[in-house]
Specification:
Mean pLDDT: 87
Number of domains: 5
CATH topology of the largest domain: Archaeosine Trna-guanine Transglycosylase, Chain: A, domain 4
Helix content: 25-40%
Strand order of the largest sheet: 12-13-14-15-16-17-19-18
CATH architecture of the largest domain: Roll
CATH superfamily of the largest domain: Hypothetical protein
Amino acid sequence: MFEVVDDRYRLVRALEQFVDIADLYKNEIGFWAKASITSAIERNRLLAAFGQGDDKVVGFLIYSGVFPTSKIQAVAVHPDFKRVGVAQLLLDAVIEKLEREGFMSVSARPAEDLRPAQAFYARNGFAVVTTVEGGKARKRRIIVRERTLAVPTLFDVLDGATQAPRTTVAPAKDRIWVLDINVLFDLIKHGRDRYQRAYRVFGAALAGRINVAVTSEFQRELARSKPERGADPIYELASALPTLHLHDAAGLTALTNEVHDLVFVQKGSRQAASVQAMSDSRHVAESIKGNASAFITSDGPLLNARSEIRAMFGLDIAALDEFDDALASYGLDVDLTQTNADGFRITGGTIEQVKPIVAACNAEALLADFERDSRLATTTVNLTKGPDDEVLGCLCLRQSQVFGEPTEVLLFCDQSKGAAAHAMDALLAKIIGEIAVGGPQLVRVSTAQGQSVVSRIALEQGFRPAEGKHVFEKLMLGCPITPQSHEAIQNKLRLVVSGEVCDQLMPASFEGVDLLYENERSEFNDMESFASPALFVANQRSVIIQPIGKSFADQLLGTTNQMNFLDQFGGATKSEKIYVCSGRKRSSYHIGQLVLFYESSRTGGRAAVVAAASVKSVTLLNKEKVTKQNLSQTVLDSVEEMSSTNEVTLVRFSNLLRLPTPVGLPRLKALGAHTGQNFLSATRIATAVGQSILTEGWNYANA
């Protein structure tokens, strides 16, 4: 009956019809001049519904927005075609278009007294965000509504097909870690170097943090090493360890021989065909048959063949040292220090304090489930409060001590408060930064129906929809990924989540990272966003060293905790920040570039690279055109002194990583980053040098 058209030529020919229809609805959509409608057509921001097979306009929709958010500006239907689904057809078309282009949300601002419009948007999932005053002439109240769009999960992108969002990892209770006998000997034999590591692993098992098992070959090997005389309680206790259940024992001998050939024969090992080699191969074969998550060992030949075993049999071989490090860093307690920001502050709270805002969101059931499921978990509550101590929002955090279980976050805000969006963005960004210190972590955010501000913020910070409409997940790496560190990070990630998920999240080799960056930039960006905070330093990626004064670094980059107790600028707490410099430096920056921030000694700084981030946009503006919104992402009152000309460059960046070990000027010189100018201005460096700086600045033993 009707067709939706976005062809610019056809729309221009129908311009007068759009003007005539718009003039009929000045009360509803305001005055739309011909020039404004023409501009919308030229910017591909107008969709029109035509009668099937003719040029009669039956309705149109105008929208706008800056990625990743959009806004419905006007919807108008010819009076002869009301109540036949034209408005719905246009809205469905624009939402499909926005979702296809990756937009995260779309808003509308109908006046409170326009009841049909209010009902239309409510029926289509546009939740009320806040109420604002309209223009002075009509003195109307405007209801701001927002709808979260269906953003594909990272796995949809990597799989190349749209599918229902799925839980990122298997439940931790279903994962089995098989221990080699040398792990036991590290615990019970005197003077072993890895005693403390083995002690912590067995302690984690006794505490219920992990499920461990041994193979039947373990029991046979234990019997061979047992003292001949008398009872030995240590060995008796070890023999009581749970034995891995084999779902299918058929072909175990043949599989043992395959493992032996791969690990020992093909590598020309002198141990080939020995009793120990056949025993090691049997351990691995049983672990494969028993669907173990990994085989934990200190055995050199098995660790040297881990890549081949993984590729052929799908089993991970992990060193005891790696497993202990992963256990030690998972679920580290997070305790946010109080933060004072422009218009709000972040402070600690209690469950009782969050109940009023939870009740206002009709989310009591969510909170009850959160409180109920707290075994082996620590719970903390943080509030954001406005200038008058009113609660703007809350975050309830539950960190499980069970290895591999996600950190759970409940997030709610009072959407009627103007500062709520900034406050919740800051709170979520701060908690993510703290959690990421422990390395790879799965975080799950839950909120209530209608909490569109929270949903939008979660999506903007790299979360993806999970198994529920109001549930979002992200798998944070919390570190830079370079050719030198890729394998170590991937090995640790495979312990935290399943190998299948690890393979979906990041390429198995760094060559795969390079190919993704060069040929599939959109997928590369999705990968980095989902893993954020993380920076994939592909070999073709541009890297620049940017000098920054100590006071600016302290505030904008958060390289000192002393600022938390002082009132801070908006940019100090936002997940996306803006660095302002001279307009003449515009050509030094481009989207996707990595920036290494060098804290200048001329301003009392450490003369070292202290942080790194990814450039999201670069804008050249006249000083008078810099908006309050721009300034809210900086740590400045004004940009006047940031350039000797009338123009400034605004470099918007995110994915900020603070280096645990700042890389000082002597090392920068040794690595080839120094040009003799002491980094007085932005300096382009070779990507390989940038990779080395980030590798040195990060402790990959704890990555």
